[in-house]
Amino acid sequence: MQNQIRYIQHLQIDKEKWDRCISSSDNYQIYAFSWYLDIVTPDWGALIIEDYEAVMPLPVKRKFFIKYLIQPLFTQQLGVFGIIKDGYVKRFLQESEKHFKFIHLNMNFLNLSEMDNWYKINNNYTLSLFKSYSELRKNYSESHCKNLRRSIKNNLKFNKTLDYQTISSFIVEELKDHDKNIKASAETLLGKLASILHENCTSEVYEVMYEDTRVAAGIFISYNKHIVCQFIANEQGKKMKALFYLLDQYIILHANQNSILDFSGSNIESIAYFFSGFGATVSHYPSFKSNNLPWYLKLVKK
Q: What is the pTM of this model?
């Protein structure tokens, strides 16, 4: 007899057991810890097997009378975590479809092998920081080295700061210019995230200044030797190649450490080229999409 998958709502989740399951998983992601989910999707529910042997967070949203699952902002990968036995991923997804008529989720890299009909396969880029800076620098592309030299000529300044709110505001404002779907509330969300991350793991904030103007900034979150980051440059910073400078300076400071720098990936060719130019290697994670809404709502939610 197969182990039963249980659907539980937010108030029923034992967060101590939940976080223990996530931290012991081979595929753990910082995005799946309860304290992270509490910020990005406060009403999240869960599917669990046994006594939190395997779990799947459910980022629940509501619109009118419909409950649905959608990937939260600032959350790259979710999916099934824990002891993942053969067939578990498919069973979890089938169970989620019983409770939600619309689902669009990014799963995690260890869920990839379970199915062959994923909605989309996404790229992620990571850089091992185990080596010395001189060794890491050898893997930079020729064009990255050229852009880095250009950035240095611009007399940019690289600073560490504790002003999480200001940097969060800067990042969100620039993101909004790139993606009109990002709302003003994202600034509050990232600010809350930065604060809670500072409490639960090592987070560092860096900025690149030109004279008295901030032209690029990044938040770097380190947990269990895995570093995820969110960074961006404004228009002036792009012209001055400030992101090349920001990441190179970060790599200088963190080289020779037993850590992985996770750029959080992209399917956009130009962004993928930017990450890979630092010597980052590509891995993959899947997206799942299911639309069982009534026909008249499918016209609205495709």
A: 0.86
